[in-house]
Amino acid sequence: MPAWTIPDKKIVAIIKSIEDAYDTNSLIIFGVNYWPLIRLEIREQLINQEKFNFNKTEKSESVIKTKGKPSNLWKKIKSFYVLWEKIFHECLFRCRGIKKISGTRTDCLFLTLDGDHREILNDKKYSAEFDPLIQQIPANIKVKKILYDCGRHNENSYYIPAHGVNPKGYPIQFIILKKYFKVKTWKSINIDILNQVISQETNGLVRLEKEVIVDKITSLLTYSRFFCHAFHQIKPKIVFMSTYYNVAWMGAILAARKMNILTVDVQHGCQGKIHYMYSFWSKTPKEGYDLLPQFFWVWSEYFARVHREWIPSDCSKHKVIIGGHFWMYKWINSNFNHFNPECNLFFNELSSYEKIILVTVDYTNPPILPHLLDAIKKTSGRWMWLIRLHPLLKSNLYDFLNFFSSNGIVNVEIEKTNTYPLYPLLEKVDHHVSYMSTVSFEAAAFEKPTTIIHNVGFVNMYKFIQSGNFSYADSSEELISSIEHPISDFEDLKKILNVNFVDSNIALNNLFKEAGISCHLTLKENNQ
């Protein structure tokens, strides 16, 4: 697993310098501009300079294995493909989940992953990005929710049931189609000059391997073919997703664009000016990018401005829609305590501690920063530290448990902290400590102060630290002091979050109008 070693601010600066030095809009394969895929690969290599390791900083081995040019089997593959094409289509129609939900009218389709369902409500998995929106849509609007690339799953284990689909359920057909695209792509791509520019702008840290890029493009085209068939069966008018920047979702966007279906990326974190896939698109063509969604659902005007800076005024393919932070609104304005009675009992057990601190940990080297560890030791018996891991670190939970146990530390809690939803934790703690997490902004909605303790977080959050919205500490003494004497002004950060119910209704109404869906939401109808 990669560790955060390069600030996002530096990554977007590198990407912009590459766009300035090279005509990225010339990267066309089969009529598709694949520069967004190249951006993903550049960023992946930059952050993969070090791997996440509990004991030491370990230089990563090359994650790219060059397999060489595909064997010259074009004629055989082409004829084999024709033979399998019909079978493949039929298999796609029968793909687990697609046939089950096809044939009926669909207005809104939500593409989700199991990892999107990070919250637990009533012992069921809940998606903070999607489920509040689905609950907001009136019953006369037909909604379907897909759980993509899943294994066996129980639909009833989700708060809002999700239909599982898996294009790799028919691996032979999937591999054949991907091989077909790979052979067609190989001779069409030339990245030698681009590599020279990238090497110069990254001081040799990044090098694109043709095999890797061809594999990403062929995967994208294969997923696009799958989603073309899926959308043909389901017939959605709007497709919602979150974190659009993965090969499968980009394939879905490409398919939707071909079929004139609206695509919406729902904001999942603080996607500000230093996010490598939401900012610094300095050469956006007026026809837009084929692999970027048509609409960006953002929380507030603050984030809308980030997108407007790179979307040309004459570009109709990418638009910003201010929808508010609806999950935050529902949480703050509703009584959700009955969903998690165990969480209340948990905090009752901690009532003897003077302070309770929530720590949001990202994948860095070392995983537990020395001055954080020192502060925990110095407050033993007085303060309780709740260690909440980044979703990508959940599989390392027992490594963290063993680490604290081996250091004789007892005033930390990890297991329950990573089980309960985030917001009840923020409601009940005294302070939030973060490496670089955007939870820092969400903490402000509950009027809980945040101290940033990682140097990458300092660079990423510098504007807010300088403005006095967050504290910064690079020693245990400073960290303890910032908790004892916290910042108490949260109004600027609350405006950025935009916990606004009306904005959500306006955003949905605008989307429905664009898609030709007859509906009009009002505050009175759905204030629940």
UniProtKB/TrEMBL annotation:
InterPro entries: TagF_C. It comes from the Archaea. This is UDP-N-acetylglucosamine 2-epimerase domain-containing protein. It comes from Methanospirillum lacunae. The lineage of its organism: Archaea, Methanobacteriati, Methanobacteriota, Stenosarchaea group, Methanomicrobia.
